[in-house]
Amino acid sequence: MDKINERIIVALDYSNFSDMENLVNRIGDIGVFYKVGLELYSSCGEKALNFLKEKNKKIFLDLKFHDIPNTVAKAVKNIAHYGVEITNLHASGGYEMMKAAQEALISEAKTTKLIAVTILTSLNDVSLKEIGYERNLLEQVTILAKLAERAGLAGVVCSPLEAAAIKVSTSQGFLTVTPGIRFEIDSKDDQKRTLHPLEALNGASDYIVIGRSITGAIDPVAVFEKIILAEKEF
Ligand code: C5P
What we know:
eight-stranded parallel beta barrel, 10 helices
């Protein structure tokens, strides 16, 4: 298993290059893995990716594709050339879409891992009913995780609250990447299914994705170190 700091993916949710650059430089060597999502990508995507690569950082490119199989497969094929560690799509795009995207990645012979978003951590059982899903959250997440595994994907994005159930229903090595991370004192913001970073890391999360608890902190480095040091005491 990777070292604890290598399992913490900091979400670089900024709308400009310099804020992102400042945070990465401030965190320094302990920060190994960073997530580039829609906000940063739509503002300075390739520049941000190049900066992170020059610094030898691992990248999770979180663009959450959701389109027809041909379109997603072509987009994933393009992404393969960025050399990122992880990229993703929505499992609800269906088996054929996931399979086409995974095959596109394999055809490029790249090591990028493709993972699937199950159900966004900003949704709960009530929001799921609103969009017409009849099953409860855990059942729905499990169905999508198993479908992603059948399509050959490397893992899923899920809430840390569901990671253990996914580990039970899927094969060994199927990755759980979990946003929805909050300390007790943090505001939940738009997240609904959250867990403390250490509970997630000591539980069934292979990687945690942590954004505002670090990027919004007065001392982001102290927050990062707090997780690492507390883990050592566990
Ligand atoms: O600030 P916070 O820690 O809530 O950030 C979570 C990050 O994880 C955001 O960049 C968000 O886009 C991403 N994410 C998520 N839920 C998912 C997939 C990704 O919150 N299911």
